Amino acid sequence: MLLSTTSVVEGRVVSRYLGVVTGEAIIGANVFRDMFAAVRDIVGGRSATYEKGLAEAREVAMAEMQKRAQELGATAVIGIDIDYEVLGQNNGMLMVAVSGTAVVC
């Protein structure tokens, strides 16, 4: 299935719009991740632990959105938007939400 952040894909013509599809994933930021991230914040640099967690959550959300599009008979999802949020008490949860338009092309 073609997945694109653009609303037009060169060389493809949209024959039917099937509607908006979404996918969400929420991951908890556990104590050990928080400790290592805090150390990383002090000494500087990137937090590989959080980056890995966000990448996994994004993959889950995208797969969920793609599954919903396939259930509608779509061959592509266009205009994909990816949003990241922190949730919960003390911002202990990370959420990735994706949405796009399921189409046949």
Account of the 3D structure:
This protein is of the alpha+beta class and 105 residues long. Helices cover 35% and strands 37% of the residues. The chain is built from two helices and four strands, in the order ββααββ. It has helices at residues 31-43, 48-71; strands at residues 2-3, 16-28, 76-87, 93-104. Strands 1-3-4-2 form a four-stranded mixed β-sheet. A hairpin with a 5-residue loop joins strand 3 (76-87) and strand 4. The longest helix has 24 residues, at 48-71. The chain starts with a strand and ends with a strand. The model has no long low-confidence stretch (mean pLDDT 85).
In short:
The protein has helices at 31-43, 48-71; strands at 2-3, 16-28, 76-87, 93-104. It has 105 residues and is an alpha+beta fold.
